[in-house]
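Sorry, can you check?
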Amino acid sequence: MDGGQITMINTALLHNQIIGPGYGAGVFAFSHNLNGLHLTVAKNKGGDGSGLNIRLGAVILTNTILAEHSIGISTVTSNTFVTINSILWFANNSNGAGTGDVVLNNEYTGNPAFHADGYHLGIGSAAINRGVNAGIATDIDGESRDLAQPDLGADEAKSLVLYLPVIFRTP
């Protein structure tokens, strides 16, 4: 991404790979403003090893999962401003690096317990009910979010509902 205003909502950036030199296998942002709402950035490889590489500009991330990178977020210059509200870090060698200004609120560490597809949340996920109301009513699949306590990342986990038969017995 280079220049302009970009908004990403319910986005999963997974399994990208840079062969050779490069930056930000998930997102490389140069001189722009990025607003990310309910992002899942996971298992991107290569280049400088970062999931998000921010060169210049302002980035706002709300309800984000950053998992399995060498560096979660790299803020390369002092002219980079990142504000994060509700983030789950998992299995990054380092969650952040660089000289930019980063403000963190509601920071969590734990296993997102992804399903095999790499972004749907499984039972026991540390991302469940950890978000803040960002005004996003549906998830990546178009299914309803709990606005009072949304899940982090692109997916809102399914509630497990068990219906049992009712048997009436008369004497």
